[in-house]
Amino acid sequence: MSASPSAETGASRIAVIGLGQMGLGMATTLLGKGFAVSGFDPSAERQRLAREAGVTVVAGAGEAAANIVILSLPLARHVAETVEGGLLAGLAPGSVIVDTSTSEAAVSRRLAEACAARGVGFLDAPVSGGPSGARTGALTMMVGGEAAHLDVARPALEAMTAKLIHVGPSGAGNVAKLVNNLLVAAHLITVSEAMRLSEAAGVPTADVLKVVNAASGRSAVSEVNYPRWIENGAFDSGFTMGLMRKDVGLAAALAAEAGLELPVSGLVARLWAASAERLADGEDFNRIVALSPEGQTP
Ligand code: NAD
User: Fold this and answer.
1) Would residue 2 count as lying in a domain?
2) Which residue in 90, 123, 155, 223 is deepest, having the highest Cβ count within 10 Å?
3) Could you tell me if 148 and 217 lie in one domain?
C-alpha cells in the first residue's frame, strides 16, 4: 500500500516529447511505475501507440502541463526548435527539461542558459540501452547540468534507469555519449574484421566468440550485439544506421573542434559516412558488419 510516485515527490507531472522507439518506451516505463505521463509526437501513428499505452497525448510541446519534461528527439536541431518554439515559454519556474536525445554539447549549453534565465532547469541526459532498456527501465543515463536540477528530476529518472551518472556541467552528458558511441561504432568494425580473420583462418565466428567473450578482447559488441542481433540474423535492435551515422559525425566534429587528430577514429568516421551508399538510414546499425572496408559485402 505505497503512495503513488506523484504523491511521494510533490506531484511531479511528467511530459515526454518525442514518442518514438525510445520516448514511448520511457513513457511506458514511467506509467508502469505509477507516474502520470502526458506526451507529444507529430506522427499520428506514434500518437495512436502512445494513447494505447496510456499516455495523455497533447496537441503540441507547448501544451505539456508538466514540471518535468523529457525530450527524446532525433537531432539537436529538433531539441532547440522544441525548447525555443514554445515549450520553455509555457513552463513554470522550478520546472526541469531533461533532454535524453543524443544531442550536441554546444546546443545544450545554449539552451541551459536560456532556461536558467527563466528559472527552468535544463539537463543534457543522453541514454544507452536502446528501446529494450527504455521499455524495461534499465537505461544508463549520463547527465550534464546542475545537481539541484537533477535532484528535482531524480525520482522519474531513477524509475527509467539502471544507472544514473552525473558526469559534470552542462554538455558533459552529450560529450560522454558521443565518446561511448564512437567506441561502439569502432568496435562494430574491429570485431567484424576479427571475425572475418577467424573464419578465413578456419575457426567459425560462434567458436571464436566463446573465447573472446571469456578473454580480454571482449566488448559490448562481442558480448551483446553479436549474439542478440548479428549472428542470428535478426538485425532488429531498434537503433538505426542513420542515428549512428549522426553520432559518429558528431564525435568527429567534436574532435575537429578540439583540434585533435585521431587517425583511427577518423577512419571509423569515414567508413560509417561511406556506408550511406549501401545501407539506408532506416536499416539496423548492426548491418555495418556486413560491409568490408572496401565497401564490398564479403
Ligand atoms: P525515433 O525516430 O524512433 O523517434 C523520434 C521521434 O521524435 C519520432 O517519433 C518523431 O516523430 C518524433 N519527432 C520528430 N520531431 C519532433 C518534434 N519536433 N516534436 C516532437 N516529436 C518529434 O528515434 P529513437 O530511436 O527513439 O531516438 C530518439 C533519440 O534517442 C535520438 O536522439 C537517438 O540518437 C537517441 N538514442 C536512440 C537509441 C536507440 O537505440 N534507438 C539509443 C540511445 C539514444
Assistant:
1) no
2) 123
3) no
Return the ligand 1 atom nearest residue 22 CA: 26
CATH number of the domain to which 246 belongs: 1.10.1040.10
* Overall number of domains in the chain: 2
Bridge-based pairing of strands 127-128 and 139-144 is antiparallel
Please tell me whether residues 191 and 140 are part of one structural domain: no
Residue 208 belongs to a domain: yes
Report how far ligand 1's centroid is from the alpha carbon of 10 (Å): 29
**Do residues 155 and 8 lie in contact, with contact meaning Cβ atoms separated by under 8 Å?**
yes
**Residue 1 forms part of a structural domain:** no
The string of pLDDT tens digits covering residues 124-170 is 999 999 999 999 999 999 999 999 999 999 999 999 999 999 999 99
What are the angstrom distances between the C-alpha of 157 and each of 11, 166, 235, 288? 15, 12, 29, 32
| Domain contains 295 | no
pLDDT at 178: 98
Are 205 and 199 in contact by the 8 Å Cβ rule? The answer is: yes
Radius of gyration of the chain (CA): 20
63 and 135 in a single domain? The answer is yes
* Rounded distance between C-alpha atoms, residue 198 and residue 195, angstroms: 5
Taking only the tens place, the pLDDT of each residue in 163-219 is 999 999 999 999 999 999 999 999 999 999 999 999 999 999 999 999 999 999 999
Query: Which of 72, 182, 244 has most ligand 1 atoms within 8 Å of CB, for mutation?
Result: 72
Query: Is-catalytic flag, 177?
Result: yes
**Atom 1 in ligand 1: which residue has the minimum CA distance?**
20
Q: Is the pLDDT of residue 237 over 70?
A: yes
Tell me: do 188 and 280 sit in the same domain: yes
- What range defines the domain where residue 202 resides? 175-290
Q: What is the DSSP letter of 83?
A: I
